[in-house]
Structures are given as structure tokens and as C-alpha cells.
Design a protein that fits this description.
There is one protein chain. This protein is α/β, with parallel strands linked by helices. It has 2 domains: about 100 residues, Alpha-Beta Plaits, CATH 3.30.70; about 110 residues, 3 Solenoid (Pectate Lyase C-like). The chain is about 15% helix and about 30% strand. It is built from 4 helices and 16 strands.
């Protein structure tokens, strides 16, 4: 079974601040309940108590009165803890406050710091050369090309633990237990059993991949395209080496067994 990337009424994105952002296309609890059931297979307690911020920027038709109690009840059913809202119309602010939700400044939350330019040391002054019959040309220093770092995690990740590799690939040497979550803006390489949730291309990199030597996750995602395994892992993949990637113009999520020998 493969998942394509249609417009969903709700999508989840991670931030470097430890909170998850729910990008909404609709604000009605009933609509979101249907989408969450399809996305997560109706699994109760799917998340692990993550704090959540609701982003209303993409909601085309806002109801005159948001059912805040219904929204919070729905999200808590999946063990999400809504703490705030952002990019919400001004006339809805009072209702959000009365529901106990903070108004988040999206310009600070979504802004990503610019990449730092490589620091070059100023050349040290050299003493004047001694007189010589012929000048000797100085060798031109060669500056090595910048290499993107990789985040390595050597310990096994237990249930409830989360690791986020911001801006880089993630290499896991000890495996991921059920209930743990690994997130990377790049690709994820897991050399131990992959049993938790693996989210690659978290900032939208559709070329990212998930590679596992022992495949058995609860959820995999590439650039927001999810697949869950509430009915179990297919026999052709369970416990085997596999890769997850997006293919085709429709960004279909494909999972293929790998032959390593």
C-alpha cells in the first residue's frame, strides 16, 4: 500500500523548540477527526504527549465560532497537548484565550536562522624575506570544501525519547524502540531495529530516505507523506533491510526490501 500526497485538512510538522505544529486546512473537529482517522489509522494514544501549536494560516473558511473544546478533545484523544495557536484571525483571539491557548508569534517560531558563513582566519603577517638572488613564490593555501555534518546516535532510543537532526542526516547505531521518535531534515539511517516512528525530510526535502537494516516501525514519513502500520508490517519487509522514499511526480511513498549480501 502506497500513500500519495493529496491536500490534507491537517498536517504535522516539527520545530526545533520541541513543539509540534499542526497546519490546519479546516477548523471543524468533525472534518479533522475523519482526516486523523485516515492518517493515523484510528489508533488511540498515537502520539506521546507532544505539545502542539495550531496553525490557522491555511484555513480558507473559518467558522464564526471555533469549537475549541471539540478541537482540544479530539487532539488529546491522540495524546497531543495543544498549548497555543498562531496566525489566527484577530476576532478569534478571545475564544482561544478562554480555551487556555496561548497566542504564538509565528514570525519568531517559523523563522530559521541563516546559515553561518565559514570563518576564515586572517593571514598571519610573515617576516620580510631575507635577500635572495631570486624571489620564491609562496604556495597558495587550499581551502577544503565545506561538508555537511551528520548526527550520530550510538545509544538505543527507548519509548518516549525523541531525537531531531536539524538540517542534517541522522545515523542510528543502536536502534529505535516502540514509542520512540526520530526526526531528520535529511535522511535517516538505522543500523539497529527500527520500531518507533521515523520522519525524514521534516522540512520538506522530498529526496530524503529512510534506510533500516531491521524494518518494523509504527510510522514512516518522507516530507510529510505518512504511512502507518496498525495492521502490522508486510511479511516481505518485517525484520528485513528496507528503504523508504518518494517516487514519481505524485510523490508516492514506496517501501522496498534491500538486498545487502
Amino acid at each position: 500500500m502506497s500513500a500519495s500526497a493529496p491536500v490534507r485538512s491537517i498536517e504535522f510538522h516539527n520545530t526545533t523548540l520541541g513543539a509540534t505544529i499542526a497546519v490546519l486546512q479546516a477548523a471543524e473537529p468533525a472534518t479533522l477527526a475523519d482526516e486523523l482517522h485516515k492518517m493515523l489509522g484510528g489508533m488511540p494514544d498515537f502520539f506521546n504527549g507532544e505539545t502542539l501549536i495550531l496553525d490557522f494560516a491555511n484555513v480558507a473558511q473559518m467558522p464564526a465560532r471555533v469549537d475549541w473544546a471539540g478541537l482540544q478533545s479530539l487532539l488529546r484523544r491522540y495524546r497531543l497537548q495543544p498549548i497555543g495557536v498562531m496566525r489566527l484571525a484577530d476576532d478569534q483571539h478571545d475564544g482561544a484565550r478562554r480555551a487556555g491557548l496561548a497566542l504564538i508569534d509565528s514570525t519568531q517560531l517559523l523563522a530559521r536562522p541563516p546559515a553561518e558563513a565559514p570563518v576564515r582566519s586572517a593571514p598571519r603577517p610573515e617576516p620580510a624575506p631575507a635577500p635572495a638572488p631570486a624571489p620564491v613564490a609562496a604556495a597558495t593555501p587550499v581551502t577544503p570544501a565545506a561538508v555537511a555534518p551528520t548526527m550520530f546516535v550510538e545509544r538505543p532510543l527507548r519509548s518516549g525519547q525523541q531525537v531531531y537532526a536539524h538540517g542534517v542526516d541522522l545515523v542510528l547505531l543502536g536502534g529505535v524502540s516502540p514509542g520512540a521518535e526520530v526526526i531528520a531534515d535529511g535522511s535517516i539511517h538505522c543500523y539497529g531495529p527500527l520500531r518507533g516512528r521515523a520522519i525524514a525530510g521534516a522540512q520538506g526535502d522530498k529526496s530524503a530516505r529512510i534506510l533500516a537494516s531491521n524494518f518494523g516501525p509504527e510510522l514512516v514519513s518522507i516530507a510529510g507523506v505518512y504511512r502507518t502500520f496498525e495492521r502490522g508490517i508486510p511479511e516481505t519487509l518485517a525484520g528485513k533491510a528496507a528503504q523508504v522514499r518518494l517516487t514519481g511526480t505524485e510523490n508516492t511513498l514506496d517501501i522496498d526490501a534491500l538486498k545487502l549480501d
